[in-house]
């Protein structure tokens, strides 16, 4: 049994910002960060384009707020948006003081670029490694502050009783030991659920949304799961992300005949739909940066140059690069208020696993990194840890999950779940993707239910107890099947088109639906 004052699930930018800010206010608090993999491999590292903030006198916070609201399609929390945008400059200065190596302009100021749907160049960046540089800096500072880390631990269940959380039950992936971690406060910062679109997602393999489903099973409210952002530009063959910085620096989107067909800096939902339509009509779509000076490309997009060389053997400044839209970002998630509180006492949610209302139906480029740091920092102002010892007891969830793991090792493994993980990704992309309607969603739901029925015949081929990633991935698969069902049900509920949720049978926005789609656990899915 492990005990701590504050347990943070997830070691990305949201979790680390929280840990550092809380330590800055009270160095004596014991903070433990739990992650399924190495801390610096968190999804934050994939955020390349930049982090928004108004630093130029010609720009304005009001414009940043308005751009965000417009992108969100009227289903956002205006109070939360204002809070995020008004705190953006202080957030950048905080990161700068922590020594994030932002790119600089000729005057030595933090450089900024324009991203899609922004009225001004306000995305601060570190070439095209922005998220990675922020993540590494936060991790270094967290270690300096004495934040503790448990890597390669997977949460199996939340310990919730009487609408209050007391900790989690976790699997030590290295040893297959099931342990109990008790905490006075628990912060969920586990990332989104884009990985459900397996083989059609820019997300890492760990980004499966399993914590979101576990929260749901324990009575935590979910909100707006149907809003999933598809990034317009990923490599056509493998969905590897090509940052919006490529278009922010002046890149074109062209068809096989060299024709531009869309304003490249429109909101992501619009650009992704236009690309998808072209591809469905049989066209190939390419990213074209050949008109941009080689020196500028190498200076501002070194990561993109390397990725494209490795995965396509092409040169970004000489060749056109075939692209497609891929699932990228989850706007929905655990319902959280502006203080990151959930409907469960002592449980908080921040970052992509949460829905605090700042992105609405479509996230503005450059706001994801801003959200995780702003709300991560702010949580330190909202958490008050009582100066009393935790009750040392064994909760029922510990034995339940120990028994679950034992049973999984006894499963016959008649069906290879990896094949069904691929199938689930195809189902979600084809039937609950950029375009959807009642027929496709009902078809998706039926196919997901059929997969769920087969789970008792699935299992693990690797029976080793040492670092069994086969076990980890099977546990994730069971959760993503259930979460996929919830996403489809949310999409069926919203009978309109709004932002990233485009219904062919309801192509217009409906004023009656300027509200959240709430899901609560009722004992079954």
Descriptive notes:
Among the domains are: 93 residues, Flavocytochrome C3, Chain A, domain 1 (Alpha-Beta Complex), CATH 3.90.700; 101 residues, Fumarate reductase/succinate dehydrogenase flavoprotein-like, C-terminal domain (Methane Monooxygenase Hydroxylase, Chain G, domain 1). Strands 1, 2, 6, 7, 8, 9 and 16 form a seven-stranded mixed beta sheet that branches. Helix 1 links the parallel strand 1 and strand 2. The chain is globular and about 65 Å long. Helix 1 runs parallel beside helix 11, helix 2 runs antiparallel to helix 3 and helix 13 packs parallel to helix 15. Helix content is 35%, strand content 17%. It has 15 helices and 18 strands. By secondary structure, the protein is α/β, with parallel strands linked by helices.
């Amino acid at each position: 049994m492990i005990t701590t004052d504050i347990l943070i699930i997830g070691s990305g930018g949201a979790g680390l910002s929280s840990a550092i800010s809380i330590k800055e206010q009270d160095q004596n608090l014991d903070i433990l960060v739990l992650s399924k993999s190495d801390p610096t491999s968190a999804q934050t590292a994939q955020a390349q384009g930049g982090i928004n903030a108004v630093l130029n006198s010609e720009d304005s916070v009001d414009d940043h707020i308005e751009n965000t609201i417009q992108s969100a399609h009227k289903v956002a929390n205006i109070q939360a948006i204002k809070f995020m945008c008004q705190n953006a400059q202080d957030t950048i200065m905080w990161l700068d003081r922590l020594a994030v190596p932002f790119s600089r302009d000729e005057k030595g100021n933090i450089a900024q670029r324009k991203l899609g749907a922004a009225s001004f160049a306000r995305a601060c960046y570190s070439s095209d490694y922005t998220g990675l540089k922020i993540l590494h800096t936060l991790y270094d500072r967290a270690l300096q502050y004495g934040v503790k880390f448990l890597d390669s631990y997977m949460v199996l269940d939340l310990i919730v009783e009487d609408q209050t959380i007391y900790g989690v039950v976790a699997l030590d992936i290295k040893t297959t030991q099931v342990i109990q971690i008790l905490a006075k406060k628990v912060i969920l910062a586990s990332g989104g659920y884009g990985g459900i679109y397996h083989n059609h997602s820019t997300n890492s393999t760990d980004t499966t949304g399993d914590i979101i489903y576990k929260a749901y099973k324990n009575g935590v409210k979910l909100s707006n799961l149907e809003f999933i952002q598809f990034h317009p530009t990923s490599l056509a063959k493998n969905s590897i992300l090509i940052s919006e910085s490529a278009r922010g620096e002046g890149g074109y989107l062209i068809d096989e005949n060299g024709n531009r067909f869309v304003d490249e800096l429109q909101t992501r939902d619009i650009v992704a739909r236009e690309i998808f339509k072209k591809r469905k009509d049989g066209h190939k779509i390419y990213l074209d940066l050949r008109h941009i000076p080689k020196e500028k490309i190498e200076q501002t997009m070194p990561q993109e140059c390397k990725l494209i060389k490795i995965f396509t053997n092409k040169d970004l400044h000489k060749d056109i690069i075939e692209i497609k839209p891929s699932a990228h970002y989850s706007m929905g998630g655990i319902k959280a208020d502006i203080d990151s509180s959930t409907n469960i006492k002592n449980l908080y949610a921040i970052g992509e696993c949460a829905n605090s209302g700042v992105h609405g139906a479509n996230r503005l480029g450059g706001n994801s990194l801003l959200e995780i740091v702003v709300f991560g920092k702010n949580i330190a102002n909202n958490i008050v840890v009582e100066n009393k010892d935790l009750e040392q007891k064994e909760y029922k969830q510990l034995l339940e999950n120990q028994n679950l793991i034992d049973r999984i090792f006894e499963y016959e493994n008649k069906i290879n779940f990896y094949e069904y993980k691929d199938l689930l990704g195809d189902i979600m992309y084809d039937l609950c993707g950029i375009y959807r309607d009642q027929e496709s969603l009902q078809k998706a739901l039926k196919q997901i239910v059929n997969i769920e029925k087969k789970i008792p015949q699935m299992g693990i081929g690797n029976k080793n107890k040492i670092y069994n990633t086969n076990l980890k991935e099977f546990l994730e698969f069971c959760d993503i099947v259930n979460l996929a069902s919830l996403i489809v049900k949310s999409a069926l509920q919203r009978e309109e088109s709004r932002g990233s949720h485009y219904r062919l049978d309801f192509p217009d926005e409906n004023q009656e639906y300027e509200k959240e789609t709430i899901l609560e656990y009722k004992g079954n899915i």
